[in-house]
Amino acid sequence: MADVAGPPGERAVFTDLTHDLTGTAITVRAGGPADVPAALAAAGVTADLLTAWPSGSGFETRFVVPRDRLAAVLAALAAAGRRDVRVEDVVRLAVHGIGIRVEPAVVARIRWVLGEAGVDVLAVSTSNRRITVACPERQLNAAIGALRGTFATESGAGTLRDVEVTRVERRTTEDAAARVGE
């Protein structure tokens, strides 16, 4: 475990790098930013990493849903009249730690390193204990390599480059189903 200097009296401590292969990103061209959440609610599905932006005459909204709920989400979007839909399997990579949101350079560094590795960052979510990035599943190896290279211990703790990753965990749809049954 290593730490990164943050605001006075606070330090970000990094402990784990995990990835989760249970998500599918859906991008929808919709009339307004509320159209998609309403369709998701109708399907009884909670979206993760939801982002929306103006595009042409409406909005584009991207979100991640569990792969096993994809058919229900697509049916709900079709019922809501949303036919311009793109689907892509994604991996959610998470850098875990304590106080990582207090260090503004962390998210910037993660996005920069992934961009340099040719990884498309589709969405980012932050909390005090985790920064989650969604990227295309086909870019998983490049993303993990870039993040491990960034968070590898080289010359001791103290800088973002020197953060030690103590565990890399792979989660699949089957793993998630097994955990629900536990």
Question: Quick recap of the structure?
Answer:
By secondary structure, the protein is of the alpha+beta class. Helices cover 28% and strands 38% of the residues. The chain is built from five helices and eight strands; from the N terminus they run ββαββαβαββαβα.
Could you describe the 3D structure shown?
The protein is α+β, with helices and mostly antiparallel strands. It has 2 domains: 2-20 and 89-181, ACT domain (Alpha-Beta Plaits); 24-88, ACT domain (Alpha-Beta Plaits, 2-Layer Sandwich), CATH 3.30.70. It has helices at 35-43, 70-79, 105-116, 140-150, 173-181, and strands at residues 2-5, 11-30, 48-55, 58-66, 85-98, 123-126, 130-136, 168-171. Strands 1, 2, 3, 4, 5, 6, 7 and 8 form an 8-stranded mixed beta sheet that branches. Strand 3 and strand 4 (58-66) form a beta hairpin. The radius of gyration is 18 Å and the shape is elongated. It starts with a strand and ends with a helix.
Strand count, sense and barrel status of the largest sheet are: 8 strands, mixed
CATH-derived topology of the largest domain: Alpha-Beta Plaits
The count of DSSP E runs of length 2 or more, i.e. the number of strands, is: 8
Q: CATH superfamily of the largest domain, called what?
A: ACT domain
Bin the strand percentage: 35-45%
Oligomer: single chain
Mean pLDDT: 76
CATH class of the largest domain: Alpha Beta
Poorly predicted runs of 5 or more residues: 1-9, 153-170, 176-182
Classification by helices and strands: alpha+beta
Q: Give the H and E element order.
A: EEHEEHEHEEHEH
Number of helices: 5
What is the alpha-carbon Rg in Å?
18 Å
The N- to C-terminal Cα distance equals: 29 Å
Helix content: 25-40%
Number of domains: 2
Shape: elongated
> Architecture of the largest domain in CATH?
2-Layer Sandwich
